[in-house]
Amino acid sequence: MMTKIKDNWLTILLTIVVIISLVLSGIVWVNPYRTDHRFFGDNTSSSNKQMTTQSMRDIYLPTQVIRTGSNQGQHLLYGQPKNTVLTARQSIEKWRLRRLTRIESGRPNNYLNYLRLNNSVMLSYPQSVPMTIFNDSFNQNLNYNSLGKINHIVIPLDHSNRINRIYLLSDDNYRVFRVKVSYANIKAIRQSLRGGSSISVDHKIYRGHPIVTYPHGVKLPNFGYQISKLNPDSVSQTLMSSSNKSSSVTSKQENNQIVYQSGTSRQLVFSPAKGTIDYENYVGHTDQFNYQQIFGHLYNQLAGTSIPLDSLRFDAYSSKNESITYRSFVEGFPIFNENGYGTVQMQNNSDGAERYHFSIYSLQVPIPVKNKTTTLPSSAVVFNGLRSSNKVKDISGMRIGYRWKNDQNSKTVTLTPTYYLKYRGNWVDYETLMN
Amino acid sequence: MNFKRIQWIFILAFVLLDLGLCLSLFMGTQFHNSTQQQSQTQITLKEMKNDMISFNQLSNKRRDGYYVSAADNQQWTNNNHLNTLKGQSARISNGIVTSTFDKTIKVKPGIQIQAQLDKLVHSKRILHGQQYTYSAALSSTHQVVYTQTVHGQPVLERDGQIRIRINDNNEVTGYTQGYVGQFKNLRPRAMTVSQQQAVTWLYRHNQIANNSRIRYVLLGYAKSETVNNRTVYLPVWNVNVKSKADDNSQNLRVNAFSNTIFTTKQSN
Predict the structure, then answer these.
(1) Which of A234, A191, A12 is nearest to B11 (CA)?
(2) Do A331 and B193 touch (CB under 8 A)?
(3) DSSP strands (E only) in A174-230
(4) Cα dihedral B118→B123→B125→B131 (10° resolution)
(5) Tell me, what's the pLDDT at A43?
(6) In this complex, is the C-beta atom of A229 within 8 Å of any C-beta atom belonging to chain B?
(7) Are A73 and A172 in contact, with CB atoms under 8 Å apart?
(8) Is the pLDDT of residue A220 over 90?
(9) Contacts of residue A30 in chain B, CB cutoff 8 Å?
């Protein structure tokens, strides 16, 4: 035996290198280039685009981090110095996810078991995002035909710090997909969970949708910010004179509003009382984008507006009017204001006109606050209140958000937490709803 | 040619092929930056060269940083305490300690300067000296700068710096010192813009004059508002530009989170 090997070692060596080259060729063949498999929707690059501080990969990141312990006890995490979402992205973008396998579908209770997977951390989007957006943010190349939209990413926290699978969850029909990954290192993710604060939470299925509930009263910090203000004149210049230099922008006062016009197709209305801007551009044709593409398209439009993107994140997509709401977030919590401060709505030209609706006010530099915390009751108390006032039938969602109180004269704001309820399709805070 | 020789040639060829395939696999996974954005910045950088603005290689890597706050304490030490420091006479005024050594300290100029001064700064002769780190970019022949650091980046204000005076005879005569206490995170870690983004923003907004040289582009912390007795510090790109015509240099600062010009009273 040994002599045989000795005699033929050259042939054996040759066979080995040939096999290696075959394997490598196979990998290259199956996985040609992971570079530009992204859907940008379109490629109209605006000159402002590169100046944005938040790329598409950032604005469509998950916002919520929930850690599940060994007995399905769940905690929502916030204020971790390392920033778990950012750290997870930096880890996952180095992994190679492959093979989507559906392991659950259509069974709410089994779905809940994955939302509460023992020893795991879950990153959740405010609303589902297309697979192409997940692929772009996390530098992956998963097939969007098997799983089109994603709500949650569940990362098991095995003791060995090496994992071989993660789970992608879609609230749509309670589907759970297992994705393979080779010995991915989760050490950095585990470390990023340290520090900061947490509140006890639980998942429930409410009217066919999983929601996060707060079984105990919660104490949350208040957050302070300096407010920055856009100049409507320069916004109108950016939006209306960029592509069509021949027609100049005119402005006139009309019923306490300032109306900017450029040619017959573009109009921008600024309402000083509310600080809102409504922009309409009649492009005269419609652009069709499918669900996988429209997120990229609307981001590109947003990047060309000169609106500061610093604290903005994707919040909601409406298929009815093909629009996306981008909202300011603080440490993973959404920020609400009745006049839409810190919120941008971008609508595609599905009816011939593209429409942007946004506020001139946005949050800039954080500042320390004097009144440090606010205490909120448990979500059961909130629902009891809603039941007794007979409003519960019109509620389709609940979350804790931060209220930005209207005050046009102040240069700073203190955001305070409260319950927000989706009442007849709009997010309304609990106190307002009960009055 | 015998059979053995042919086998050798084949082995060599396949090993080369394997290496090539490995290389292409690794390259394939590494270059996934948005190529479009890159090229736009490259064009701007070329325009800058045409405008006789010279600079060393600028990184396109995004970094990370934090919004932090610090105690706004002008009285971080007092004259009584300063009197106990050996071999010097030190006084505090407006939060800045000014000290003159009784005997000057001879130093050898050149690259070794850091090692020599580390001994002094990290000794008991300077309060909290251990918390300061040498900054080559901020130092010159007659003034060597040590800074406090926030998450590993230097504080760019004199409030968080020790500035050591060196005379023409290469002797340390004294120093000034500011000290910032109790840095606390205001928000978790976030990504900043890259060196390239910061510099091209300044150029596009006509902040960098033609015929000048960018000496350094440094990520550090600068002070913003003071609210409720705490001062907010945030990461900025400090771009030091020197005119080629005369000796004037200026520091341009870009808010590294929002990529807009950062203006506060500069304390230099």
Answers:
(1) A12
(2) no
(3) 175-185, 197-206, 209-213, 218-221, 223-229
(4) 70
(5) 41
(6) no
(7) no
(8) yes
(9) none
B7, pLDDT greater than 50: yes
Using CB atoms, pick whichever of B14, B186, B189 lies closest to residue A86: B189
Name B64's Cβ contacts closer than 8 Å, sequence gap at least 6.
A86, B189, B190, B191, B192
> What pLDDT digit, counting tens, does each position of B126-170 carry?
999 999 999 999 998 889 999 999 999 999 999 999 999 999 998
Backbone dihedral angles phi then psi of residue B138, each to the nearest 5 degrees = -85, -10
Separation CA B258–CA A368 (nearest Å)? 19
* pLDDT at B26 (0 to 100): 67
Residue A44's pLDDT band, with cuts at 50, 70 and 90, is: very low
User: Looking at domain A223-230+283-435, which of 3.30.310, 3.90.1720, 2.60.40, 2.40.30 is its CATH number?
Assistant: 3.30.310
**Which CATH architecture group holds B77-179?**
2-Layer Sandwich (3.30)
Whole-number Cα distances in Å, A111 to A121, A165, B214: 16, 17, 57
Which of A306, A300, A310 lies closest to A346 in space, CA to CA?
A300
Task: List the domain boundaries for chain A.
Answer: 51-213, 223-230+283-435
Using CA atoms, how far apart are residues A210 and A108, in angstroms rounded to an integer?
A: 9
Tokens found for residue B233: 């510090």
Phi, psi of A174, rounded to the nearest 5 degrees? 50, 55
pLDDT digits (tens, 9 = 90+) for A334-371: 999 989 999 999 999 888 889 999 999 999 899 999 87
Q: In this structure, what token pair is assigned to residue A288?
A: 């069709």
Look at residue A286 in the predicted model and tell me its pLDDT: 85
Residue A54 has pLDDT above 90, yes or no: no
Q: Is A6 on the interface with B (CB under 8 A)?
A: no
Which residue matches tokens 């997940």? A134
ipTM computed for the complex: 0.82
Nearest Cα to Cα of residue A69 among A193, A205, A171: A193
Rounded mean pLDDT, A222-233: 92
| Helix ranges, A44-107 (H) | 56-59, 84-92
Question: Domain ranges in chain B?
Answer: 35-68+184-255, 77-179
Q: Stretch B54-60: mean pLDDT, rounded?
A: 89
A44 touches chain B (CB under 8 A): no
Q: Does B7 touch chain A (CB under 8 A)?
A: yes
Residue A47 has pLDDT above 50, yes or no: no
Using an 8 Å CB-CB cutoff, list chain B residues near A196.
188
Residue A29 sits at the chain B interface (C-beta within 8 Å): no
Both tokens of residue A321?
A: 């009017």
Confidence band of B27 (pLDDT split at 50, 70, 90): low
Report which residue type is found at A176.
V
pLDDT (tens digit, 9 = 90+) per residue, A138-194? 999 998 999 999 999 999 998 889 999 999 999 999 999 999 998 899 999 999 999
- E strands present in A114-255: 120-130, 149-156, 162-170, 175-185, 197-206, 209-213, 218-221, 223-229, 249-254
A308 and chain B in contact, CB less than 8 A: yes
Q: B35-68+184-255 has which fold?
A: Lipocalin (2.40.128)
Chain centre to alpha carbon of residue B144: 14
This prediction's pTM:
0.84
Query: How far from B163 is each of B114, B144, B168, CA to CA, in Å?
Result: 13, 6, 16
| A209 close to A171: Cβ distance less than 8 angstroms | yes
Q: Could you count the other beta carbons within 10 Å of the beta carbon of residue B90? A: 23
Q: How confident is the model at residue A122 (pLDDT cuts 50, 70, 90)?
A: very high
Strands A312-318 and A426-429: unpaired
pLDDT at B4 over 50: yes
Q: Which of B30, B37, B186, B236 to mutate to test the interface with A (most CBs of A within 10 A)?
A: B186
C-beta atoms of B14 and A139 within 8 A: no
